[in-house]
């Protein structure tokens, strides 16, 4: 059950800057097809997507490591002074089908600068050109490598949207093994149910200029391949309470003009019922993955809260 201690409205009114940027973004063509009938044309025969390149200035701004796991590229950003006391494994969003966006790099940089942590960003292969198995293998290998040289209890898993799904799914896989576990879990507007089952999302959909329910269902089915999209393996919203009880302390951040706010509320309540230290932070009128708009008050508040979560 949600309670006053499990959900907090951090911003009752959007900042002027957020409103202005949100209006501008709403006038642009969506990066995702919004009609499921357009998805086939969008995916069929497309050129293999490329990740947005890391800004060259990062090479002097941070201590940068370029490496590979499972044949896929990975980038680690350390503070210039050296590895941070905490290490974040961050999975970018993109519906499992789109690569690293250019806006993800400034967000990763802010996390390093403001929190003094190291941040590892896997540049995973995307569907449908590659399987979810490739994505899971990379996530597992990246965590194993970091945990081999860094105290696992000071590793925090994080991700936005589909990347939030990847971070949560990795945490659940690790919990079931009984081996090294991450110390904390942070989720930015996570995609928790690829079937988009909850009809309450229909009330939010007119306010979400990025995400549309029926199109996301189709993307989820494509990514799931031969699996049941409603299974816990594909939609961690439906993980058993026994598995959820194994998760570390968890924090979630979602805007109220984001379709995923509905499942974020449900999931937070389920986590708490399972005995997990969990809390959801909401932001009025904030769009999907608003924290990537780093100059805004809302993004700064998110990073500040994340810092407090790490320090606690």
Automatic annotation (TrEMBL):
Gene3D superfamilies: alpha/beta hydrolase. One of its GO terms (molecular function) is hydrolase activity. Residues 88-291 form the Alpha/beta hydrolase fold-3 domain. InterPro entries: AB_hydrolase_3, AB_hydrolase_fold, GDXG_lipolytic_enzyme. Keywords: Hydrolase. This is Alpha/beta hydrolase. It comes from Erythrobacter insulae.
